[in-house]
Design brief:
mainly alpha; MetI-like fold; 13 helices
Length: about 270
């Protein structure tokens, strides 16, 4: 009976997995179909692989420049989240000061505020500071993230305080304790923060759309949107561009998925 139950459970999971993978499979196979075969049927495997769709799509728009902008923006945001979120999480998890829990609850409460309510004030600051159409506008307003603070703080709370005390007895200051003792043990939490920060930055559309108007600073998602409006009658080129834009996010997620699960599993640890 248990074997039958386990088999049925695996069958359900397999069916759900296929349901999730099917759109990606359709996207990839459509990008490899010829123009006269795109709308002929719902088959997944092309009769002939048209690899030339990818060079054609990449040459139709400055995807290389869009990629560089996305990489610069994403790298800056991920680095900011790892540094600033870690410092804030360390203070909230390890330092004793009045109102610490109130501050943390206040930060968590900000996660309930819809993003659209903060976009206009942030955009107004960008205009006032003269950052419009610059990497500064793309990166600086999003250098910290409450979600990363919650994840890293939860993982720090799972580590024994004896580690801090032993390091302090050996003469280490608080920054040395954080960098040399705690951070090497927090790799799963840092990986979780990095993955979510990367996906958030790489796939962001609204903020780059607001703070840029020049192709010199446009990201891959904005370029893909412009490409979509121009090449909508050519699904094979549109899917090729979409695959190119999605590959980095998929690679990062697959590479760090184990650390992602471990980091999130420790988030709910109570002090």
């Amino acid at each position: 009976m248990s074997a039958l139950r386990q088999l049925s459970r695996h069958a359900v999971l397999l069916g759900l997995s296929l349901l999730v993978v099917a759109p990606f499979a359709w996207m990839i196979t459509t990008s490899l179909k010829s123009a006269d075969k795109v709308n002929t049927g719902p088959y997944l495997v092309p009769h002939q692989f048209e690899w030339g769709n990818y060079p054609q799509a990449l040459s139709a728009a400055p995807f290389g420049h869009y990629y560089v902008n996305s990489v610069v923006m994403t790298a800056g945001i991920v680095a900011g989240h790892l540094v600033l979120d870690t410092l804030a999480a360390y203070a909230l998890a390890r330092l004793r000061f009045p109102g610490r829990n109130v501050v943390f609850l206040g930060l968590v409460a900000t996660m309930l505020v819809p993003t659209f309510l903060t976009v206009l004030p942030a955009f107004d600051l960008v205009i006032r500071f003269g950052w419009f159409n610059s990497y500064t506008a793309l990166i600086v307003p999003r250098l910290a993230d409450v979600f990363g603070i919650v994840v890293i703080r939860g993982y720090l709370l799972s580590l024994p305080r004896e580690l801090d005390e032993a390091a302090r007895i050996d003469g280490a200051n608080r920054m040395q304790v954080l960098v040399r003792v705690l951070l090497p043990l927090c790799k799963p939490a840092l990986a979780s923060t990095a993955v979510f920060s990367f996906l958030f930055a790489w796939n962001d559309f609204l903020w780059p759309l607001l703070v840029t108007s020049d192709d010199q600073y446009r990201t891959i998602q904005l370029g893909l949107a412009a490409f979509t409006s121009k090449y909508a009658p050519y699904p094979q080129y549109l899917m090729a561009g979409t695959v190119v834009a999605a590959v980095p996010a998929i690679v990062v997620f697959v590479y760090l998925q184990r650390s992602l699960v471990r980091g999130l599993a420790a988030t709910g640890v109570k002090e």
